[in-house]
Amino acid sequence: MTQTLEHEPTAVEAPPAPPRRRFGRLAVRAGSILAALVVWELLTAFDVDLWLHFDRLPTPVEVARDLGYQLGTAVYYQDLLDSLRRIVTGFALAAVLGIALGTAIARSRGTSDVVQPLLEVVRPIPAIAVVPIAILLFPTNEQGIVFITFLAAFFPVVVSTRHAVRALPVVWEDAIRTMGGSRRRVLWNVVLPGALPGVFGGLSVGMGVSWICVISAEMISGEFGVGYRTWQAYTVVDYPGVIVGMLTIGLLGWVTSAAVELLGRRATRWLPRGENS
Amino acid sequence: MSLRIENLVVHYGQRTVLSGLDLAVADAEILAVTGPSGCGKSTLLRALAGLLPASSGRVVSGGTPVTGTSAERALVFQDDGLLPWRSVRRNVELPLAIRRVPRARRRAEAESWLTQVGLSGYEDHLPRELSGGMRQRVQLARTLAGSPRVILADEPFGALDAQTRTAMQRLLVEVWRKRPTTVVFVTHDVDEALFLADRVAVLTRDGRLAKVVESSRPRTAGPAVAAERAEVLDGLVAA
C-alpha cells in the first residue's frame, strides 16, 4: 500500500516544486533504482563471494532475458491466472463473511459471546500453519489453497470491522431510529457505510496476508500457480526463473493492493481527508 | 400531538439522571427545557424519543405510552446528525424512504423541503462542504420531511454564531407557523428559550423540575420581558 501512496507525491508534498526541481527529483529517484541494478549486475557478474554468495545469483540481464522468454509462453499466464483466481476467490469470501461476522459480533452480545472465544483461540495461529489441516480436510488441493487464502484475510477483516462498528457515533443510529427506521435500515444505512473506512483498513491488511499465504500454499501443495512455479524453478536450479517468479508475485501483490486501495478511496470519498487524496 | 411525562425516573448506569419528573406539553406547544449542565436535559429528550427506557414512571404520547422510537417523534441534534456520506438531498430523502414514499416522488419532496429552508442549489453537496448553519438547515429539512408530530431538539442552534442562530430561530418560527407541531427543545440560552417557547421548564441538577415560566409574548420580535428573564435565571441559579 505504501507503493500506491508514493505514486501521488503532489497531494502530500505541497507546495508544488518548480518544474526544474521536480525533474531533478525524478532523476534522483530513477537514478537510485538504476544504481541498485548496476550494483546487482556488478556483484553477480564478477561472482563476488564476500560471506554472501553473490556468485550463485543470476545477473539482472539474465533475469531480464528469462522474463522476456517467459512472457512468450502460455504457462506463465496460466500460472498467473491460477494464483489470481485463488486470491480473488479467497479474498472475496473473506471480505463478505468477515464483514458480516465482524458486524454481528459488534452489534449482538449473543453472537459475540458465542463466536468471540472461538475466534480468540484460532486467531493467533498463522493461516500458513493450517496448511496441513487444509490439505487433509478438503477434497482437492485447490480448495485447500483457497481456504488458506480466505483464512488469512478473514481475521484482519473481522477485527477491523468489529472495531469500526463499535466506534460509530450513536447520533447517526439515533437519527434513523427516531425517523422510524428499523434495525435493518440502521444496518444498511448507518452501520455498514459508516464502518467502511475502518473495514478497508482490514481489507488492505488482509490482501497483503492473503498473498503471503497463497504463495506459500502453492509452494507446499504443488498445484501450479506463481508460487509453485517459483519453487519449481529453485528445485531445478533455474535461478533467473526464481527471480522472475518473485517479481511476478510482487507485481500481482501491488496491483491487487492498489485495487483495494482505489476501491476504498472511492467508497470513503465523504471523509474530510477525501478531498485531495 | 400532546406529551405527558408522568413521574419519570431514568437511570444511566448507576446514576439517577431524572428522578420523578412530571410535565405536560400541549399539542402544538413549543416547550423549552433548560437547566445546569448535566441535569439530564438530553436524557429527557432521549426518553421522550423512546431511545432510553424509563426505570419507572412513563411518557405518554398522544394517549399511548412510549415504549420505543417512532417516526412521530423526531430528534434533532446539535451537530453531526447528518450522515456524512450522503449528499444533502439523499439525507433529506432518507425519512421519505423510511416512510415508503415512492422513489419518484422522494426527489421532488426533498427538493421542496430544501427550498423551504433556503438551500436550493446545494442538493448535491456533502454535509462537510457546508457551514454549521447550513448543516442545521439540512437537519431541519430532513426532520420536517419525516412529518413528525413531535420535534425534539437537543440544543439545535447551540453550535452556531449569534447571527446564524437568530436566522435559524426565525426560520423555525416560520416553519412552525405553517404547520404547528409540538416542539420540545433544550437550550442554554434564556433569550432563545423565551423567544421561541410558550413555556420554559427549568430542571434542577438532580433531575427534578425547578419551575415552569410562561413566556408572555412568544415568537414576537424584541427583547424578552425582563421579569420572565429574571425568573428563569433565578431558577437556573437556584438549581
UniProtKB/TrEMBL annotation, chain A:
SUPFAM superfamilies: MetI-like
Location(s) in or outside the cell: Cell membrane
InterPro entries membership: MetI-like, MetI-like_sf
A Pfam family of this chain: BPD_transp_1
Keyword list, A-Z: Cell membrane, Membrane, Transmembrane, Transmembrane helix, Transport
TM region(s), chain numbering: 26-46, 87-106, 118-138, 144-165, 186-219, 239-263
Topology versus the membrane: Multi-pass membrane protein
Limits of the ABC transmembrane type-1 domain: 80-264
Family: Belongs to the binding-protein-dependent transport system permease family.
Protein name: ABC transporter permease
From TrEMBL, chain B:
PROSITE patterns for the chain: ABC_TRANSPORTER_1 (PS00211), ABC_TRANSPORTER_2 (PS50893)
Top-level division of the source organism's lineage: Bacteria
Pfam families, per database record: ABC_tran
A molecular-function term among this protein's GO annotations: ATP binding
Domain annotation ABC transporter: ranges: 3-230
Record's keyword terms, sorted: ATP-binding, Nucleotide-binding, Transport
Protein name: ABC transporter ATP-binding protein
Lineage: Bacteria, Bacillati, Actinomycetota, Actinomycetes, Pseudonocardiales
